[in-house]
Amino acid sequence: MPRSTVARIDLEALRQNFRLASERAGTAQAMAVVKADGYGHGIVPVAKALAADAQKYAVACLEEAFAIRDAGLRQPVVMLQGVHAEGDLELCVRRGFEPVLHSHQQIDWLAQSEARPTFWIKINTGMNRLGFLPAEVEDVMTRLDSMGARSGVLGFITHFACADDLDSPMTAEQTARFEEATVPWPELMRSVANSAAHFVPGQAMYDWSRPGIMLYGGSPLVGKTGPELGLKPVMSLEAPLISIRTVRAGETVGYGAGFLVDRDIRMGMVAVGYGDGYPRHAGTDTPAAVNGQRIRLIGRVSMDMLAVDLTNAPDAKEGDPVELWGQTVGVDEVATCAGTISYELLTGITARVPREYR
Ligand SMILES: *Cc1c(COP(=O)(O)O)cnc(C)c1O
Fold first, then answer.
1. 4, 84, 189, 269: which has the highest count of C-beta atoms within 10 A?
2. 258 confidence band (pLDDT: 50, 70, 90)
3. Measured in angstroms, how far is the CA atom of residue 159 from the centroid of ligand 1?
4. Which atom of ligand 1 lies closest to the CA of 343?
């Protein structure tokens, strides 16, 4: 019998979140961002579950694009980092991938290659990660024209640095720079919105939005949880209570004797740890739940186990499943306790944890 530590994936919740993204995208279409193994949910089941609704997928790299194609799905797949070698351009043509062109190196590859994929041009409007500066776009288009690659340009994309903070002026500034840089080509498509931008009042959405985390129920906004934004939790991480004992006042729990017990407590050990991707930085008082009752972690998270205080759950018994995040405890709450964001928790679930779909 395998241990019953499992990540349950609710594909209907995923579809509902995609519908919410589509609604919030207005007249734009939403491409489903399924990079990083579908944010840890399994790229193939996720992509298949969205196949009836999503007209495009977006991934980081070629391997992820192949995973979608090899699963028999036919929608175009946007490769957000573009190609990493000249030879990949030919694969993009053959398999129907749409790479993003963000560097002069990639233009050189296009110049050397006979392959003529359709592709997107990335404009750096302030994120300063990837892309051409607004002032370079005209030259890039001229160069593409001269090498007979101009007709492959589908459109322009940019990425926001601060859309998670509704008070930041930067999203509007980046949008204005993008708008200005793309004015000469009204016939081409445009795409700017990550999940957070779907919640920015008055945000221009253009032709395609690119929702990622919101599809999986995680909040893209600082200080808000997914459910507060109308999103449904998709992953429930569960692990069984494998031992229950009373720990006496004055004793300590776990590595580094990290937690000093101040009164007798009923303590449970849960079969999940950082070796499963549960964050080691989640300390004492991080919430979990058993039988729908909220409980708290105590002491340090180990590789394969963590300790919980069962004071609030007197009926909990060995074998009962503990929810580390899911319906009762939001992944955003746990992320905050661990000093990180839901993205990192969801993508960090390791291969040891089976995904079960419903
Ligand atoms: C990952 C990514 C997205 C999706 O971002 P979320 O915050 O998860 O919605 C959109 N666009 C680009 C370029 C990305 O890299």
1. 269
2. confident
3. 8
4. 8
The alpha carbon of 221 and the centre of ligand 1 are apart by a number of angstroms equal to 13
Instruction: Quote the tokens at residue 130.
Output: 């990837």
Q: Whose CA is nearest to atom 1 of ligand 1?
A: 212
Strand 265-270 relative to strand 235-247, pairing: antiparallel
CA angle 301, 305, 307 (to 5 degrees): 65
Question: What's the pLDDT tens digit per position in 32-76?
Answer: 999 999 999 999 999 999 999 999 999 999 999 999 999 999 999
Say which DSSP state 229 is in. Answer: G
Q: Which residues line ligand 1 (CB under 6 A)?
A: 33, 35, 80, 159, 194-196, 210-213, 220
Q: How far apart, in whole angstroms, are the C-alpha atoms of residue 66 and residue 77? A: 9
Pocket test for ligand 1, best of 39, 59, 194 (most atoms within 8 A of CB): 194
**Does the annotation mark 317 as catalytic?**
no
Neighbouring residues of 190: CB distance < 8 A, sequence distance ≥ 6: 155, 156, 157, 178, 182, 206, 207, 208
**Domain 235-357 class?**
mainly beta
pLDDT 10s digits, 308-336: 999 999 999 999 999 999 999 999 999 99
Does position 1 have pLDDT exceeding 90, yes or no?
Answer: no
Banded model confidence at residue 2, pLDDT cuts 50, 70, 90: confident
Residue 212 CA, ligand 1 centroid: distance in Å: 6
Tens of pLDDT, residues 186-211: 999 999 999 999 999 999 999 999 99
Where exactly are the structural domains of the chain? 26-210, 235-357
The total number of residues shown for the chain amounts to 358
The CA distance from 71 to 64, in Å, is 11
206 is catalytic: no
CATH topology for 26-210? Answer: TIM Barrel (3.20.20)
Q: State yes or no: pLDDT of 355 exceeds 80.
A: yes
